[in-house]
Amino acid sequence: xxxxxxxxxxxxxxxxxxxxxxxxxxxxxxxxxxxxxxxxxxxxxxxxxxxxxxxxxxxxxxxxxxxxxxxxxxxxxxxxxxxxxxxxxxxxxxxxxxxxxxxxxxxxxxxxxxxxxxxxxxxxxxxxxxxxxxxxxxxxxxxxxxxxxxxxxxxxxxxxxxxxxxxxxxxxxxxxxxxxxxxxxxxxxxxxxxxxxxxxxx
Length: 202
Ligand code: GRF
Description:
The protein is an alpha/beta fold. The protein contains 6 helices and 9 strands. It has helices spanning 14-25, 43-50, 66-79, 96-101, 122-129, 164-187; strands spanning 3-8, 30-37, 55-57, 84-87, 106-110, 133-140, 150-157, 191-194, 197-200. It has a 7-stranded mixed β-sheet with strand order 3-2-1-4-5-6-7. It has a two-stranded antiparallel ribbon with strand order 8-9. Helix 1 packs across helix 6 (164-187). The protein starts with a strand and ends with a strand. 5-O-phosphono-beta-D-ribofuranosylamine is lined by residues 9, 11-15, 88-89, 109-111, 175.
């Protein structure tokens, strides 16, 4: 059965765009049924509307705490019968109420080779550290930050004269190629989690 996908995004939404574009050309194995944002003015929401995808926005400041906020999101996801949550530049940490209910059904993309350079500024941190190779990681989300089982990874070299912007462009190009592929693998039930390892069934 085709999976119902919710994409969570707070900002620019280029990964959302890449997944929508992929779905227009290839068999993703699911529908983007909802785009959720915590930012009403995010470009991600605009992109979703332009692609006739249903959107929802909740502002955490309207809730007593983050657990209550995530409970409201969970109700929304249940009412939309969402099977997979795709975090694509969603800048809020998920509380256990969401992570536990959607255990092994939430994925994230991180612009570094985990477990190195976790956190919000992974790409910039890797660049400033002076590593010669960094990259992109797509992983399942568990209760800790940037720590769940890894689905796909791809290395990106940092070249001698790269500016941060040069490097960022190549990171994004890899993200836009591998994130839709990871979503497709999930939707076609090709991912099996075995402890910390994710086996890709061929
Ligand atoms: C990406 O670099 C992703 O790795 C990180 O947040 C950024 C989101 O970019 N988690 P966009 O909003 O998809 O353009």
